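Example record

One chain of 440 residues, shown exactly as stored in the release files.
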Amino acid sequence: MRITVPDPERHETDLGGVNLFDTALYTDGDPHTVWADMRLRAPVHRQVLPDGRAFWSVTRYQDVNDVLRDHNRFTSRRGTLLSVLGGADPAADMMMVASDPPIHTAMREPMTKVLSHRSLASRSPAIRLIVQRLLAPLLDGGTWDAARAGAGFPMAFIGTVMGLPQTDWPELTRLSTAAVAPHDEEYRESDGYGTLAAAHAELFSYFSAQVRRRLRHGGADAEEDLVDFLIRMEAGDRRLHHDEIVYNCYSLLLGANVTTPHALAGTVLALAEHPAEHRRLTEDPSRTASCVEEGLRWTSPANHIMRHVTADTEVAGTVLREGDAVVAWLGSANRDERVFPDPFRFDITRTPNRHVGFGFGPHYCIGAPLARIALQVAFAEIAELIEEFQVAGPVEHLASNFVAGVKSVPVTARLRPGAAAALSRALASAGPVPVPAVRR
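Predicted structure tokens for this chain:
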């Protein structure tokens, strides 16, 4: 998604002509100017598509939080993305993100334990080696595409955590991107909805085969991975059914591939465009964690989350009717002037920084600890090795109304003194990436 700064001298946006559904708004348009006007003049806004489908948009931080925290008024069971607007979600009550408490709680609680920061912290050395290999092309002084190089970054750890064969990682990356950006020319195979259906079918078939193979072989190997864990996990007083395991495998893969690569590439781009902030990072690497949080706010990789109204209610004084679709725009909430002073300034020391990059409420992203660990390791290495990034070509944006993504971020880098030799030594002495087991 294009990140712009609204012009205070601009004319007001014609909100009647705004189309937040259109992917072109995020690749070639100016969504942040639109959202700024909506926060000011129409914080709860209804859009009707040409085919008659309609949805409400909430764009202020507090309203976004209110919608996402209250599952009694706003359900997840009818779909959480605009791609399924107007239809029924076949994963309702089977996939954690498409369910409400108590079903959601029963699935989430055991998964939270194995995806906690404490459980995953032992993976930092493995992720550091992955990052070093990712940055290795910078040693020759050429152009490095942070988006294309980073596209496979999450698969290197979520694929390992899930126990998926490394040979499958590139295709799983392609399919998960096609599932969230089916209208993008690089991924579209037919019309957008045909691409979406095909990607879903292939991913569900893949995970179904994974589950059947493990059950046929009698269960986990010596070290249990996340798919094995889901097979044995008890949600409340029962084990998950086959389809529930498959849907949740898909959701975990998608979550990793949605947030992490675009936060990585988008933050690299932000550092290139704000060299003073990059200098602050290299001068004080203890700012790495706050740099990652500002990168998550700045990029807002998951752009929206959808809910449906369970009974007539009000949001910011506007009446919404039972069954209405409501879309919470995270990218807008993370620029809300009421919460973030000078929100269009990239500031790696911003505090407090209560962004909603991972959502909010009971559905707060369960993979957030793993994403934070991976991103903090990545930017710790960048702080140690890279003096400055410079944009070296056009930035290409992903055509998606859900993922605020980038497909290409070509940069060159000026390395810090001694960085090339240090990175070369680290790579020369590195063995295979260590793979800690999933801990219950």
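Notes: Residues 434-440 have pLDDT under 50 and may be disordered.
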